[in-house]
Amino acid sequence: MRTILLSGVAVLALAGGASAHPGHGAGGPPPSVTMGPPSAAFSHVPNGAANGHSDVNPGVAAGANLLGNLNAAHASSSALAHASPKSIVGAIAAYKTAVSTAEANLKAAQAQLALDQAKLAADTKAGAPAATITADNNAIANDNAAIAAAQAAITTAQNTLALRANKPLTPAVIAQLNTLLGL
Q1: Contacts of residue 28, Cβ cutoff 8 Å, sequence gap at least 6
Q2: Cα–Cα distance between 39 and 34 in angstroms, integer?
Q3: Which residue of 20, 36, 120, 133 has the fewest C-beta atoms within 10 A of its own C-beta?
């Protein structure tokens, strides 16, 4: 009996199973069911995105590809503030903090350099004693050292982030990243 039952199932399967599932024809849905999801299911998807072609601006798409995992810079300020330092968002947050601090130090040192250079020019014009001129030159040397330190801090931050990025950290990537971060 068991053999006969299996043979009957095999016959139905070979015949298309029409009698096993009445109303389903040769294995498809009933004629009253249309194929695919309703059009409302895709109303939020941009035109062509479902097949890999979207109406996204090619420049934006290229920029996103250029950044790779650094697209995490789009994270909210709250996410940046609370991110794990081991995550890419945390690495970007550390980069932002380091570069912000270094840029502030750079601007301050450049402003101080301009003041010290003006003082040296005025002291030289006024015929100030050699000790005053030496002090002015020492101040300028200190300003230049502060500028170099700030620039080195920016480079260090970029190099540190480059170790975590999955794409090369080119000047174009740095510019785009800094724009996203408001730097």
Answers
A1: none
A2: 11
A3: 36
